[in-house]
Amino acid sequence: MRIYRIIPILALFIIAVTFDVNGQCKAFAKKVCFPELSPYLHDGNYHAAVLVEREEAELYKTFYSDMEYRVAICGEDKLPNIEFKVLDANKNVLYSNKDANYAKTWDFKLQSSQQLKLIVKVSSFNAPGDTPASGCVSIMFGFKMKK
Amino acid sequence: MNKKYGISSGILALALLFVGMLIGCSSGGSKATKDEAATVIPKDNTAVYEDIKQAEKIFNALPSPLESAMLIKSAGAKFDNALLNPVGNVSKYVTNKSMALNLGIYTCDLSFASMYEQTQLIIDCMSSAKKMADGLGILKAIEQSKIDELEENINNSEKIMEIVSETFMNSNSYLADNGQPAIAAMVLVGGWIEGLYISTNLVDMKNFNGNKLVSSIIDQKLSIDILFNLLNSSKGNPAVDELLVQMQQLKVVFDKIKITTSAVRPEVDKTTNTTMLKSEVKTDMTPEVFKELTRVVGEIRSSFIK
Which of B256, B248, B251 is CA-nearest to residue B283? Predict the structure, then answer.
């Protein structure tokens, strides 16, 4: 019977932890990633998640020829480098931040509007046997009218 | 004793069901495909890494209301107050679906008004958006202090757009972080349809060919599959299922528009450290297809604001 009393308490604890972690991601995105967008205007969309080492996330978005964009991809300090690649509809790699010393931001504009795919991957500390690091990763977009 | 045990079991079952639902909601939706907080990785386990890889997160990013409004402005379109959803309609929206759609719609209207420095409309649209957010239980998305800040900076369009961006992020991050991806998707769909509605109604048919606004409308075809992926991730939700039927009508029209793009060539401008993605595009939309698109968008939008 005692176990039945413990389960709901444990469940409530899990809920509290879940929402707390998610709330932390929002705070991280606002505090760390948002300033990286300046002087571009943040589009207002929110893309953030807890990722672990070697885990990937994908994002699909249409970018318009009338705008100039900055993408900012930030990971918490406890994570290894965050890699990101930008691909066109034919899966050609247009940009990889690995070639730019894992830069957090990339500025670009387009001659014609395109749907692009971003692949974000948490790299690894390369320490087999250790518990993989996990933390918030945020993807944010800033834009301004093309001059 | 048996009765007491029965009540305890019932409470326990309800508690477990509640927990299951909450965790299930958190793990569903357009981006999170597994329970983020409960990620526990045993040491040195390759198979677990494979599971993680399969459970990758996918974000389907529709243009935000702010981006939709800026596209209209950049196309050189004129402002038309009559195209916005009247603020007097707010009392009509009592369901989660109608409040979510109209949160997106009023945020788009707010962004549109901000671009054209329509001071009174900015305040009215912000108040309407706040009512929708409050109705959805989105805590602290749009606080009264933000409306006061808006009024204080009413002639500073840059500051106003920053406030719009911040409040919109507060709304969608709250929904994403609290396991409400269906509501979050509906907010985005409402904003996107409003942008499309305003755009299609601002096109001057006498200057159809070579019209920059028409090009911007054609570009929205590129977001159709993103829209479907976003909604499909909440398929089974009755409100989302209804939207999928309506969006299918829109897709039928967008499928009549042809877009052909050449290979993309990145070229870096080293002075500005900006990459230009070069490509040529050919598009084809007849005035008849445009009129059909305008009609279908208008019907969908009418159903959203009624």
Answer: B256
Place of tokens 């409400």: B180
Whole-angstrom Cα distance, residue A131 to residue B36?
16
Residue among B56, B169, B275 minimizing CB distance to A56: B56
Q: Which residues of chain A are within 8 Å of residue B226 when distances are taken between CB atoms?
A: 60-62, 115
Helix (H/G/I), strand (E/B), else coil: B18: helix
What own/partner pairs with CB < 8 Å and gap ≥ 24 does B129-135 have?
B129/B103, B129/B167, B131/B90, B132/B90, B132/B93, B132/B99, B132/B100, B132/B102, B132/B103, B132/B106, B133/B103, B133/B167, B133/B171, B135/B93, B135/B94, B135/B99
**CA atoms of B218 and A112, how far apart (whole Å):** 12
pLDDT digits (tens, 9 = 90+) for B258-303: 999 999 999 999 999 999 999 999 999 999 999 999 999 999 999 9
Pairing of strands A47-52, A105-110: unpaired
CA distance B253 to B89: 29
Q: Which residue of B has its CA nearest to A129?
A: B44
What does the radius of gyration of chain B's CA atoms come to, in whole angstroms? Answer: 22
| Closest alpha carbon to B173 in A63, A116, A33, A77 | A33
Residues 6+ apart with CB under 8 A from B23: A14, A15, A18, B35, B38
DSSP string, A101-133: TS-SEEEEEESS-EEEEEEEEE-----TTSPPP
Would you state the pLDDT for residue B26? 31
Check B67 against A128: CB less than 8 A apart. no
Q: Which two tokens stand for residue A81?
A: 């480098």
pLDDT band for position A146 (cuts 50, 70, 90):
confident
Q: Which of A58, A61, A88 sits opposite B56 (nearest CB)?
A: A58
- Cα distances (angstroms) measured from residue B104 to each of B22, B111, B278, B304: 25, 10, 32, 11
pLDDT, tens only, A22-59: 567 889 999 999 999 999 999 999 999 999 999 999 99
**How many degrees, rounded to 5, is the angle at CA A114 between CA A110 and CA A115?**
135
Q: Which residues contact B60 (CB under 8 A, 6 or more apart)?
A: A59, A60, B30, B31, B226, B227, B229, B230, B233
**Residue of B173, B215, B262 to mutate, interface with A, max A Cβ within 10 Å:** B173
Give the separation between CA A7 and CA B15, rounded to whole angstroms: 9
As a whole number of angstroms, the longest Cα–Cα distance in chain A is 70
Q: What is the pLDDT of residue A23?
A: 66
Integer Cα distance of B68 and B197 in angstroms: 11
